[in-house]
Design goal:
The complex is a heterodimer of chains A (406) and B (477). By secondary structure, chain A is an alpha+beta fold. Chain A has three domains: 1-183 and 376-406, Uridine Diphospho-n-acetylenolpyruvylglucosamine Reductase, domain 3 (2-Layer Sandwich); 186-288, Alpha-Beta Plaits (2-Layer Sandwich); 293-375, Alpha-Beta Plaits (2-Layer Sandwich), CATH 3.30.70. Chain A has helices at 10-23, 74-82, 108-113, 121-124, 127-130, 159-163, 197-208, 222-228, 249-262, 274-285, 307-317, 343-353, 364-369, 378-391; strands spanning 3-5, 27-30, 46-49, 56-60, 65-69, 86-87, 131-138, 143-147, 171-179, 181-182, 186-193, 214-220, 240-247, 270-272, 297-301, 320-325, 330-335, 356-361. In chain A, strand 16 and strand 17 (330-335) form a beta hairpin. Chain A is globular and about 65 Å long. Chain B is an alpha+beta fold and 477 residues long. Chain B has four domains: 11-106, Uridine Diphospho-n-acetylenolpyruvylglucosamine Reductase, domain 2; 111-228, Uridine Diphospho-n-acetylenolpyruvylglucosamine Reductase, domain 3; 233-338, Alpha-Beta Plaits (2-Layer Sandwich); 347-428, Alpha-Beta Plaits, CATH 3.30.70. In chain B, 36% of the residues lie in helices and 20% in strands. Chain B has 18 helices and 18 strands. Chain B has helices at residues 11-15, 17-27, 37-41, 64-76, 129-136, 155-161, 168-171, 205-209, 243-255, 268-278, 298-312, 326-337, 339-346, 361-374, 401-420, 439-442, 445-458, 472-475; strands at 33-34, 57-59, 80-84, 100-104, 111-115, 120-124, 141-142, 178-184, 190-194, 218-225, 227-228, 233-240, 262-267, 288-295, 318-322, 348-351, 378-384, 389-396. A seven-stranded antiparallel sheet of chain B has the order 15-12-14-13-17-18-16, sandwiched between helices. The two termini of chain B are 23 Å apart. Classes of the chains: A alpha+beta (406), B alpha+beta (477). At the A-B interface, strand 8, helix 6, strand 10, helix 7 and helix 9 of A face strand 9, helix 8, helix 9, helix 11 and helix 17 of B. The structure holds flavin-adenine dinucleotide (FAD). Flavin-adenine dinucleotide (FAD) is lined by residues 46-47, 82-90, 93-94, 105, 125, 147-149, 153-154, 156-158, 160-161, 163-165, 213-214, 218-219, 340, 428-430, 465 of chain B. Flavin-adenine dinucleotide is lined by residues 46-47, 82-90, 93-94, 105, 125, 147-149, 153-154, 156-158, 160-161, 163-165, 213-214, 218-219, 340, 428-430, 465 of chain B.
Chain lengths: 406, 477
């Protein structure tokens, strides 16, 4: 176990990083540490955690804005929001359980550092789209800010986006400000049972082309569907295609009927009520269908209509099963044991369709011998390397976690 | 406006103008290089017309490869480059310098791919903003960010400024609606980022490039999200006896859990001018007006507008009026979208663009009034109320140098006020030259130095839109 440094505030955090920068000694950056095993394994003696940087610092429900120190547990923020019938609309996925950790450990800083978004991304955008402002400590040990607490802000470059999704390799966020939104009054889910991947994705994409504001579009192979739905709903093992509607109660009946009408070609609809629908999408949010094994898991992002093509091409060469979110554009792909977790095949197929794949779950030896994050084009790689240097010239923050040498 | 500091132009470049223009003509056909005085005049300013400067030349390439050749040539010859879409920037974002060429993408306006199943459109960036929606609207789709200048402004400029619009409260601004782009860097390298997938891999270069005000590279193509339009939409008008009441009503609507697609605010002077222009039926006996638009089916619209009317009651709205027809809705929006033009007919104006936390609205409006009174200038206030983005229009006479100077100082004070109450200098128009010297009121030197390092990552010689965004003293040699 490495040496764990727990600064109590932003200025202590800045001092820790400044010292590391001066001594050129790398730091592992973490929040609660629930996603430590994502990325290339680090060989680092010291870790710095934001877990003592806690607390909501601003919450104005009428302005749809909340700020919190980076180490604040996500669950605390969600609880504060729930009191006002509000939520983080991007519905951050919880990677913890599938990585063998407890549920609900994530800190808010890490949610943005990993740009974790859930099913509602197709409707409202991803985590990065909801990030309004940050304070952060760069690899130079300097405290910077970008954005602010207002909804619209184009003053200076957009470092909120730049830093979201950089997995602690550019800076350590100390405080984040985000847009929050009202919780819909109620929800409803329409299910189709037994569709093939290709037909299912056709249905999901068509549903998003209707005006009914579908807010969840998933398709699960039978083995996964069984884990999210009980036998009363899913009598026999079969693939399940799910469409979520959320709105005021009075709109839901109307929208559910019209949506089902527009999709009659895809077969009979099974409807989940508010409670059942909530449970189903909570299963999607915690990826609970991936928790019963430690087989390698890829997170593949592609054009939605290419989703089934990618999986069908891979199925010919690999033992794999898939869950699709984002109407086919996000695939959680579990592969059976092979020497390279299927990396060669996954990347070959994506080089034809476009898109990218991250090896989210695999043992450390695989993660150190493979490209965990998708290999970059030379142009993007050059910018990536220079961007890292501009924030962290001595390479002290999570060096090598995303890409070797960066 | 009166006293824009500029960097010493590069004499080497100025002295060899003829040779450099011949060089550009070897790269592109002759008619794509505008070098004569009359031709160049079209590029000497943008919509911040108080500043003008003739560039060396303007070039109008038609392909990404041509853009690449031009940039490589400019880099080799130390020529500065100003990216330009339609030149509607309100902050001098497309203002040239004497030793620069303007690179306009307006000839690159082709639609490359429309994909309804994946809900994307891939286009060359010289297409106008409305051009994208026009192509997909027969199928019930639209491109969401809708700046009031949408008939003229290009996607290129929208990407440069991360532009917003009235309907961004629900649908987000430019950066939330772009999935991929193709950018040409100063050394001619063509880099593709993202695509039709819903998140790009690795660092969020897309997010950094959008809003970089033409300082990172020339964006030639982009893949944007297109969305299925709601079944219907309808605006309603609500007048109030005070701006305070209108502001409190906005907060109450949002706090109730309803997010309308748009909530626009106008104060009395703005209402009168816009009504005069658009004959939209705005009430004239009120101090403040809200335009609130909701979407959905007929029944949903009825029910939402009903809820909103109930929420508004305690704030004593005067003359609530729900649009009864398509034509009426159009007129209501025409009044709002042509507000700048309408005010421009009666006076020169200086358009501010600060954003404030909504809760500070009443006090900020009072203080803006006081600041303007102190400078003996009139002001009309129009803004995107749902997101706190203010557009005070400071009225002045451009032919009176003393008044021009007062307007400029007055504007700066208004923006400083926005920052002081927790907001920012610019919500959607960008920094450009106009607000660059104010950047230190919002940011520390350390903040700006990190931003400038990112500029250097993309453009090591600082040839692209050099004099914009950052206070000159921070980076002048
Ligand atoms: C009447 C009026 C109303 C307006 N209303 C709004 C509004 O509601 N919301 C809003 O956000 N703005 C508004 N604006 C401001 C302006 O229209 C926007 O900033 C718009 O995006 C500019 O687009 P453009 O094509 O005119 O770009 P330009 O003015 O030509 O350029 C804008 C910036 O983008 C850069 N740029 C241009 N092309 C490229 C490229 N290919 N690659 C990289 N950088 C590039 C330029 O260098 C410049 O910095 C309004 C302006 C006017 C005059």
């Amino acid at each position: 176990m490495s040496d764990l440094i727990r600064p109590k505030d932003e200025s202590e955090l800045a001092a820790v990083v400044a010292e590391a920068n001066a001594a050129k000694t790398p730091l592992e950056v973490c929040g609660a540490g629930s996603k430590r095993n994502v990325g290339r394994p680090l060989q680092i003696a010291s870790s710095v955690t934001t877990e003592r940087l806690r607390g909501v610092t601003l919450y104005e429900p009428n302005e749809l804005v909340l700020s919190a120190r980076a180490g604040t547990p996500l669950k605390d923020i969600e609880a504060a929001l729930a009191k006002n019938n509000q939520q983080l609309a991007f519905e951050p996925v919880d990677l913890g359980p599938m990585l063998g950790e407890e549920e609900n450990q994530a800190t808010i800083g890490a949610v943005f550092a990993a740009n974790l978004s859930g099913a509602r991304r197709i409707q409202v955008g991803s985590a990065r789209d909801h990030l309004l402002g940050i304070r952060a400590v760069t690899g130079r040990g300097e405290i910077i800010k970008s954005g602010g607490r207002v909804m619209k802000n184009v003053t200076g470059y957009d470092l909120c986006r730049g830093i979201a999704g950089s997995w602690g390799t550019l800076s350590v966020m100390s405080e984040v400000t985000m847009k929050v939104l009202p919780k819909p009054e109620a929800e409803r889910t329409l299910l189709f049972i037994g569709l093939t991947d290709e037909v299912a994705i056709d249905a999901l994409c068509r549903a998003l082309g209707t005006p009914f504001e579908v807010s969840g579009t998933a398709h699960l192979h039978a083995e996964y569907a069984r884990r999210l739905l009980d036998t009363e709903i899913l009598r026999r093992p079969a693939a399940v295609t799910a469409l979520r509607l959320e709105n005021f109660e009075e709109s839901l009946n109307y929208r559910a009927d019209r949506l089902a009408e527009s999709l009659t070609a895809f077969g009979k609809v099974v409807e989940l009520d508010d409670q059942q629908s909530g449970d189903f999408w909570n299963g999607m949010r915690t990826l609970s269908f991936l928790t019963d094994s430690d087989d390698p898991v890829w997170r593949i992002s592609t054009a939605p209509t290419d989703g089934s093509k990618v999986v069908s091409a891979l199925s010919k060469r690999l033992d794999c099963r898939a869950a699709y979110d984002w109407s086919g554009g996000l695939i959680w792909l579990q592969t059976g044991p092979t020497a390279d977790a299927g990396a060669t095949e996954v990347r070959r197929v994506l080089s034809e369709t476009g898109g990218h794949a991250t090896l989210i779950r695999a043992d450390a030896s695989l993660r150190s011998s493979l490209d965990v994050f998708h290999p970059m084009s030379s142009g993007v790689a050059a910018l990536t390397r220079k961007l890292k240097q501009s924030f962290d010239p001595a390479g002290v923050l999570n060096p090598g976690r995303m890409y070797a040498g960066i | 406006m009166t006293s824009l500091a500029i960097l010493e132009p590069n004499a080497e470049v100025l002295n060899h103008r003829d040779r450099l223009i011949r060089g550009l003509r070897d790269l592109l056909s002759t008619d794509r290089v505008v070098a004569d005085e009359d031709g160049r005049r079209a590029f000497e300013t943008d919509a911040l017309t108080a500043y003008k400067q003739m560039p060396l030349a303007a070039v109008l390439p038609t392909t990404t490869e041509e853009v690449s050749r031009v940039l490589r040539y400019c880099k080799a010859n130390d020529i500065k480059v100003i990216a330009r879409g339609a030149g509607t920037s309100l902050c001098g974002g497309a203002l040239p310098s004497e030793d620069s060429i303007v690179l306009g993408v307006s000839k690159m306006n082709r639609v490359l791919d429309i994909d309804y199943m994946n809900r994307t459109a891939t286009v060359q960036t010289g297409i106008t903003n409305i051009g994208i929606s026009n192509i997909v609207s027969p199928n019930g789709f639209f491109y969401a960010p809708d700046p009031s200048s949408q008939l003229a402004c290009t996607l290129a400029g929208n990407l440069g400024m991360n532009s917003g619009g009235a309907h961004c409260l629900k649908y987000g601004v430019t950066t939330n609606n772009v999935l991929g782009l193709k950018i040409v860097l100063m050394d001619g390298e063509i880099v593709e980022i993202g695509g039709k997938e819903l998140d790009a891999a690795g660092y969020d270069l897309l997010g950094l490039i959008i809003g970089s005000e033409g300082q990172f590279g020339i964006v030639t193509e982009a893949t944007v999200r297109i969305l299925r339009a709601a079944e219907g939409a309808r605006p309603m008008l609500m007048g109030f006896n005070s701006s305070e009441a209108a502001g409190a009503c906005v907060a109450a609507i949002i706090g109730s859990g309803i997010i309308p697609v748009a909530i626009e605010f106008m104060d009395k002077p703005a209402i009168h001018v816009c009504e005069e222009f658009a004959k939209a039926g705005y009430p004239l006996d009120v101090e403040a007006l809200l335009i609130v638009e909701v979407e959905g089916s007929e029944e949903e619209i009825e029910s939402l507008l009903g809820r909103i009317s109930d929420i508004a009651k305690p704030f004593k709205p005067k003359g609530i009026r729900v649009s009864q027809s398509e034509a009426e809705s159009k007129a209501i929006w025409l009044g709002r979208k042509s507000a700048f033009g309408a005010i421009g007919r009666i006076s020169d104006y200086y358009c501010m663009d600060g954003t404030i936390p909504l809760g500070k609205l009443p006090e900020v409006l009072v203080e803006i009034g006081e600041i303007c009174a102190r400078y003996k200038l009139n002001v009309a206030n129009i803004f995107h109320a749902g997101d706190g983005n203010l557009h005070p229009l400071i009225l002045y006479n451009a032919n009176d140098p003393a008044e021009v100077e007062r307007a400029e100082k007055c504007g700066a004070e208004v923006l400083e006020l926005c920052v002081k109450v927790g907001g920012c200098l610019t919500g959607e128009h960008g920094v450009g030259v106009e607000k660059r010297e104010l950047m230190l009121t919002q940011f520390s030197k350390t903040d700006l130095e990190q931003q400038m390092r990112i500029k250097t990552v993309f453009d090591p010689d600082w040839l692209l839109n050099r004099e914009k965004v950052f206070p000159l003293e921070l980076h002048a040699p």
